[in-house]
Amino acid sequence: MKAISISAPGGPEVLRLVDLPTPAPKAGELLVRQSAIGINYIDVYLRSGVYPSAMPFIPGLEGAGIVEAVGPGVSLFAPGDKVAYPQNPGAYAEYTLLPAERAVSVPPNVPLREACALMLQGMTAHYLCHSTFPVKPGHVALVHAGAGGVGLLLTQLAKARGAKVITTVSTEEKAALSRSAGADHVILYTSKDFAAETRRIIPGGVDVVYDSVGKTTFDASLECIRPRGMMVLFGGSSGQVPPFDLQRLSAKGSLFITRPTLGHHVAERAELVSRATDLFGAYETGKLRTRIEFEYPLANARRAHTDLEARKTTGKLLLVP
Ligand code: NDP
């Protein structure tokens, strides 16, 4: 099978197309013939060494496809089933192995590419506004990178729960997309002071900031939050936030801060399935729209990473084997 392999950390050039034997499923595993592979910002951290990884490895965590074969003891799925998964290593390949309990069933009306687009970024958006800081009517949320993969989905889900949503984006084109996802106010944080602008819109401060940009936004994000509001730092697209003096939370208004990650929010199968059911249901009823901006052939993974890091993309990027 064709796969992408990384044998040393570095830039997009370390993504190499290789030929590998198609693996056979062991006990409890599925072999999936992939229709779509998700690209996510975490793939960049793992490729570049920000998150250390044993080498060599096949990058990618997310995909959707058809079960080709099952290992001994698998009763959840059978060959021919449509499945998707949000978090299992080795996704950038024509075939992948995963523990059956880490896969979810894809409803007949949901195309596999759409299912893939709802997995890692969809489940992240879901846990952020349902579990980390459950937004409700009357809340105001600030969402950075509002036209990104997580950003477009989080905006829609937070709006559906009744919140007012302010987003930040880097270009007018991204602003239009963010508005079409339901953002009430969109700030071009590359040309405006987003903290001052947020305070102009909501003088008392927002209830929650969902900050995935990190290094370049973190300090100003703290300026946007009302007393006893919450800072949710969930990524570092611009770089990692340096060590933080907790004393600052008191001075800024007894703020709460958390640094959540998806793995802890889909660790139990029941929770994984429940989030997937919510997301597929919202998609099927038209309440949640995906935006698959680019589909790259698997062999063009380098190009996909280059575009993502250059802030050229919006919504979901897929690799297609
Ligand atoms: P995005 O599609 O959101 O792409 C990243 C976006 O970040 C860019 O499009 C850009 O939007 C913005 N950005 C701001 N500064 C920079 C910079 N210096 N370099 C690159 N991008 C920048 O990616 P994803 O949806 O895949 O992920 C979004 C974030 O969420 C990532 O930080 C990721 O790590 C995090 N994440 C965290 C999870 C968790 O559980 N903790 C799970 C999933 C994702 P603009 O041009 O508008 O500024």
Compact overview of the structure:
The protein has 321 residues and is an alpha/beta fold.
Description:
The protein has 321 residues and is of the alpha/beta class. The protein contains 10 helices and 15 strands. Strands 3, 4, 5, 6, 7, 14 and 15 form a 7-stranded mixed sheet that branches. The protein is globular, with a radius of gyration of 20 Å. The mean pLDDT is 98. The structure holds NADPH dihydro-nicotinamide-adenine-dinucleotide phosphate (NDP). NADPH dihydro-nicotinamide-adenine-dinucleotide phosphate is lined by residues 40-42, 120-121, 124, 145, 147-151, 169-170, 174, 212-213, 216, 234-238, 260-262, 308-309, 311, 313.
Give the tags.
single chain; alpha/beta; globular; 6-stranded parallel beta sheet; 26% strand; binds NADPH dihydro-nicotinamide-adenine-dinucleotide phosphate; 321 residues
